[in-house]
Amino acid sequence: MPDNGDALSGVAMFTGLEQEVRQRVLAAAVPRTYRRGTLLFVENDPGDSLILLKRGAVAVFRTSATGERAMLSVVRPPDVLGEVSLLDGSARSASAEAIEDTHALALSRGAFMELVHSNPRILDAVMRSLGALIRRLTEQNADHVFLDLPGRVAKTLVRLAGDTSATIVTVELNQSQLAEMAGGSRQSVNQAIGSFAGRNWLRTEGRRIVINDLPALRRRAGMPDR
Fold first, then answer.
1. Which residues form the Cyclic nucleotide-binding domain (predicted)?
2. What are the helix (H) ranges across 147-213?
3. Cα gap 194→69, rounded to integer Å
């Protein structure tokens, strides 16, 4: 586990806090370690903590009544999980699973709300986070209407690659998980991946997908070039 002295580095919600306040946050937070495949929480669990990721990656997903999973996003440091439930006190609206060995800090709802009352500007960062979530979900809904499956696969890969200028990008996600995010069957997603590989846009290495041509995937997804 990284030293807690830098545990809030890069976390937008806590940017600008005085050092004394940051130390109070850290003193109230509890270190957590999750092995790959471990559930951090499931739908309808009490929303009693904010989880700050420090290392690893977490998949956020919903499960249907028949057991099918729809992956909503993959969260990586320095992002946080659980801010929606913290604000309204409701149960978790989705489940979260570590897809890599993950280290995190858990801040209880009581400690978080006390921090908000004493530092109201934190709400600005929380509202920005919620706004980004709403925009992402709106865009995902539009993608299912306007993009074919290969386009959705390409767009998912671009999102997972993040904001990078690297020539080659490695995405730590297997094809089953990619199918959940793109909203297609594994067989159909495998066909799309095979088509992209045939164009030398990417290659697969076990559980990893190595992207060779990110601009080509952006074009296939109908996204503007950078």
1. 13-116
2. 149-161, 175-182, 186-198
3. 23
C-alpha pair distances (Å), 66 with each of 62, 63, 85: 12, 8, 25
SS3 155: helix
pTM here is: 0.74
The number of angstroms, rounded, from the C-alpha of 187 to the middle of its chain's C-alpha atoms is 24
Residue type, 172: E
The residues pairing with 108 across neighbouring beta strands, listed in sequence order, are: 49
Q: What is the CA radius of gyration of the chain?
A: 18
Report pLDDT digits (tens) over 57-108: 999 998 888 888 888 888 888 889 988 877 778 899 899 999 999 999 999 9
CA pair distance 121, 71, nearest whole angstrom: 31
Rounded Cα distance between 59 and 5, Å, is 26
